[in-house]
């Protein structure tokens, strides 16, 4: 799959460095590294379900086995799989249910993938959280990492809250409202600032 990077990244970095003292210090530390998107929507969401509540290493092992089952990873092909085969790949009974529900939403057109570009963030989140196994946090990660929406602020993300605490409050615990106040200076590029906050905790970029 080709790697896609956001065309707004440079403008966002300039904006953030001009508006925020922490960003002015953080952004230059990571050179040309930036957000990257690969894969298609169905695969990205299926991987996020597989990875829930297990380690990155375990998730990769299960995904490798599961992805080998259909000839190609599409919703229609997943719906043809046998439950026993999916379980044998390492998926729990609940995750099998979630992935089947995801496939049904995609195959039936209940999610409007082709319309997403014209839809606002909250409308896309509403479509995604109607799928079993996908909550707001997963939907927000999808907006950032797959659709590369520039202004997502995932306040349920532990890493974001931890990073704001470390970079802005000398490690003191912060509330969601504290985090929202800090992020007021980041708009309209909250996704970019969040990505740099994550990097301050773990220099290796996350990819979905």
TrEMBL record:
What EC number(s) does its UniProt record assign?
3.2.2.21
Catalytically driven reaction(s)? Hydrolysis of alkylated DNA, releasing 3-methyladenine, 3-methylguanine, 7-methylguanine and 7-methyladenine
- GO molecular function, one example? alkylated DNA binding
Which SUPFAM superfamilies does the record match to this protein? DNA-glycosylase
Offer one Pfam family short name for this entry: HhH-GPD
What are the recorded Gene Ontology BP terms?
base-excision repair, AP site formation; DNA alkylation repair
Gene Ontology CC: one annotated term:
cytoplasm
Q: Does the keyword DNA damage apply?
A: yes
**Keyword vocabulary terms for this entry:** DNA damage, DNA repair
The record places domain HhH-GPD at 50-202
Protein family according to the UniProt entry: Belongs to the alkylbase DNA glycosidase AlkA family.
Name of this protein:
DNA-3-methyladenine glycosylase II
**Taxonomic source organism:** Xylophilus rhododendri
